[in-house]
Structure formats: C-alpha cells, structure tokens
C-alpha cells in the first residue's frame, strides 16, 4: 500500500472548492425584480398654434368726485386675428413624474377699443363712448408645471395626472384714432371743473374724429398666477385619443398700465397715465383630440380658454405736475379663447 502524505499546501488546495461553495451559499439571493432600475426618461417636444380672440377690460370708481358716475370709466380692448405660436417641452421621469414648459407669443393683428365714460345724470348709461382701432399689439406667456400620475385607467386606456405650476401672461394693446359714437346731453353740458372759468364738458356734440394713424392709448397688462389642476388622456383606439385639462388659478397678482398718449403730449398726464395693481383668481381649460401616427409622432386639435379676474385692486392717475390720486378699481378681467393645433414628437 502506497502511503499518502498530506502537506499543508495540499490541504489548502483541496479545501478551496468547498470554501468557495460555502461562501456562495451564504450570500443573499437577489432576484431580478429587486435589482435597482434606473427610471426611464421620456421627452416630448411640441410645436403648435392657438388661433384666439381676446377681451381685456378694466373700470374704476371715482364717483366720490361729483358728477362722476360709478363706474367712472370703462375701457374694453377686444382683439382678434391673434395667431399664437407656442413651443412645449415635457420631460417624464419613470411612469409617474413629469415637468413641462410651455412658451407662446403672437402679434395682435386687429380689434377695437371701446372707451366709455359715465356721469351721474345719465344714470349708468355712457355719457361718452368712443371707438379706436387696435393695431401693432402683442402678447406672450410662459407656463411652468410639475406633476404626478394619480390614476391609470383599466386596460391601459389612459391616465389622470395632477399638476401645480406658475403662469406669466403679458398683453400689450395699442389703440389708434378716435371716433365718437355717443355724446349725451349731460356729457356736452355738465361742467367737470367748476373752479376753472368757463364750462369744461366731457365731450362736444359732433366732434371730428382723430385719424386712425394717430396713437392715442397704450395698455400694458401682466398676470402672475399660481396654477393647480388635473389633466387626462383617454385612448379610444390604438391611434385615436381624447384629452382635457382643468386648471384653477387661486392666486393671481396683476399690474396694468394705461398711457393716454395725446394727454401726455398735451401736458395733462404722465407716462404711464393710469396704473393699476391688485389680486384675483382665474381658470384655464383645454379639450381636444389626438391622432397617433406612430409611437413617436402625434397631432392634436382642440379648444382652449384662459380667464383671469380681479378680486380687489386700486386705480391711480398720474398728473403731469407730479400729483396722483387713487380710487377703487371696479373691474379687471382678461379672457382669451380659440382653436388649438399642434404636433408632438417623443423620444
């Protein structure tokens, strides 16, 4: 019989497979489901247009100064031919979270300013009404939102998301020319400044128009809004879906400046002539349909409404001699609505 001699080196070599197997059996078992997964990032970019009409109006109450009525003056800027071009970028992280930036702007091609002034003797009817043409005006806006998935509809039909964000909305209207439409008997006879010798009426019957090449009023308005709401998309077929959103703007801060160009030139008022500041609320809504040509390319058509309104505000005039007087702002409102069209590419 051959004698086998075990050396320390041979013992270690023989025990290595057993030791390795023991270590492996002691390691925790990690399933594929438990491995860390990097969230998938999806980017959607869109280019679209908003064919809209707008109505921006304000009025104030200086009836404490007789014989001025309440409201004392109301200016309504009703524009049209406003074809907004907008760009949208949305980044989704995983199936739940997203951030979105929406920027749009347009030149305002036309419209009409209606300027009404009221005196107490006319009992709420305009004592003076003039019309001017809106031209050379513009608007632009920025929406910045962040959101999260709230619900997935059964059978993968669609989703419901919640969002919060911020909106800045700027509009600038320029009015040209003046056409007198109404001049009441009170407007033509009541003396607005009894201290100064001679009668200073609000208007003159049969006053000649000012040419529509003359800039008469410039208005700048700004809304700063906090947004919160819901958005949803529901697939009717593999290639067709409907979408909608409802957004409440519970906190709005606004500024509004009106410059009466002819009175600035005449030395009566400063630039700006009237300034307004206050806070309010508003709402935005979108509804439409979406066609998915491929997994990456889609087109949308819909209708959009934006609305902001004041709760409380102050109107202040600025005289050429440096004096200013403040009165309550009765109304400040901006409304814009119209058809939307766009294309979206995803990657």
Structure description:
With 347 residues, the protein is mainly β. The chain has one domain (41-346): Lipocalin, CATH 2.40.128. Helices cover 8% and strands 68% of the residues. The protein contains 3 helices and 11 strands. Strands 1, 2, 3, 4, 5, 6, 7, 8, 9, 10 and 11 form an 11-stranded antiparallel sheet that branches. A hairpin with a 4-residue loop joins strand 9 and strand 10. The longest helix is centred in the N-terminal third of the chain and has 19 residues, at 8-26. It is elongated, with a radius of gyration of 33 Å.
CATH architecture descriptor text? Beta Barrel
Average of pLDDT: 91
Distance, first to last CA: 77 Å
Compressed to H and E, one letter per element, the order equals HEEEEEEHEEHEEE
Can you give the helix content as a percent range?
under 10%
State the CATH topology: Lipocalin
Which term fits the overall shape? Answer: elongated
The fraction of residues assigned to DSSP E strands is over 45%
Total of helices: 3
Largest sheet: 11 strands, antiparallel
> What would CATH call the class?
Mainly Beta
List the uncertain runs: 1-35
Give the total of domains. Answer: 1
- What is the total tally of β strands? 11
SS content category: mainly beta
In angstroms, what is the radius of gyration?
Answer: 33 Å
| CATH level-4 homologous superfamily | OMPT-like
């Amino acid at each position: 019989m051959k004698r086998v001699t075990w050396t320390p080196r041979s013992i270690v070599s023989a025990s290595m497979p057993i030791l390795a197997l023991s270590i492996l059996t002691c390691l925790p078992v990690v399933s594929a489901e438990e491995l860390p997964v990097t969230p998938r990032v999806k980017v959607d970019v869109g280019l679209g247009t908003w064919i809209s009409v707008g109505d921006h109006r304000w009025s104030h109450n200086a009836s404490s100064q007789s014989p001025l009525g309440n409201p004392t003056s109301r200016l309504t800027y009703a524009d049209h031919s406003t074809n907004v071009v907008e760009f949208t970028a949305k980044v989704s992280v995983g199936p739940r979270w997203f951030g979105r930036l929406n920027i749009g702007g347009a030149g305002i091609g036309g419209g009409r300013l209606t300027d009404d002034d009221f005196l107490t003797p006319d009992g709420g009817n305009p004592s003076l009404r003039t019309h001017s043409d809106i031209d050379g005006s513009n608007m632009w806006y920025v929406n910045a939102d962040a959101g999260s998935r709230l619900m997935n509809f059964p059978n993968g039909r669609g989703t419901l998301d919640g969002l919060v964000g911020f909106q800045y909305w700027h509009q600038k209207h320029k009015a040209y020319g003046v056409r007198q439409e109404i001049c009441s008997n009170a407007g033509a006879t009541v003396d607005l400044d009894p201290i100064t010798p001679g009668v200073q009426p609000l208007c003159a019957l049969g006053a000649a128009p000012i040419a529509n090449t003359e800039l008469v009023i410039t208005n700048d308005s700004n809304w700063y809004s906090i947004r919160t709401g819901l958005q949803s998309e529901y697939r009717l077929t593999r290639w067709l879906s409907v979408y909608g959103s409802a957004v409440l703007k519970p906190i709005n801060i606004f500024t509004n400046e009106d410059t009466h160009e002819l009175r600035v030139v005449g030395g009566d008022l400063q630039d700006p002539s009237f300034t307004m500041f206050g806070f309010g609320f508003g709402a935005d809504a979108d509804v439409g349909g979406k066609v998915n040509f491929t997994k990456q390319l889609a087109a949308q058509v819909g209708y959009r409404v934006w609305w902001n309104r004041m709760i409380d505000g102050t109107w202040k005039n600025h005289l050429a001699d440096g004096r200013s007087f403040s009165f309550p702002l009765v109304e400040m409102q901006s409304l814009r609505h119209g058809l939307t069209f766009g294309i979206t590419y995803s990657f």
